[in-house]
Amino acid sequence: MDLTLLGVGAMNSPRYRPAGLAVRWAGHRVVIDGGGTAEEGEHVDAWLVCDERAELMPSIRRRSAALGVPAGVVEYQAGGVRLRPLPVEHTSHPTYGYLIEHHGHRSVWAPEFWAFPDWAAGAELMFADAAGWDRPIRFAGGVGGHAATLDTAERATRAAVARLVFAHIGRPSIRAIDRGQSPPFGEWGVEGRTYRLR
Q1: Which residue, among 30, 40, 36, has the nearest Cα to 75 in the 3D structure?
Q2: How do residues 109-123 score in pLDDT, each as one tens digit?
Q3: Do 146 and 137 touch, CB atoms closer than 8 A?
């Protein structure tokens, strides 16, 4: 199974395309999030999203409609692979991450959360929120926000995540990258990079 980052940016990133993932296996291809980044003519079996009320949903819906698949928070299962939406604490309305299961292997797509999702524990590979760097970003009215990258690195270590990739990089984390800083555990996601689960 191949998992390719379509983008690693937070909303309105000055540097990166919107965070998105393409999952490929045995003739199947599923896109998760991504802000409408699937290319013309690409085969897509399903387009899954973490937040049906996100600012990028209009562009995602246009792109997914052009490809003939609806976009939404749904479970997808085929060829021994299951992509299952599970709740994350992020904002005042329901939001999700995805648990990707393949023959006993578990990976996680959770690009936005305020609190580290307990269901990600033990994942072989986790794509996680990096909007904040050394402190969380709190939404107005106290309705959630984004975890700090440094806190997520610590929580992922305690949760026995084998490999952590930060894939929703916000301005505070961009400034940390420009200063040459990196988290104590995990790595910065790279647009176009493919991560393989065997």
Answers
A1: 30
A2: 999 999 999 999 999
A3: yes
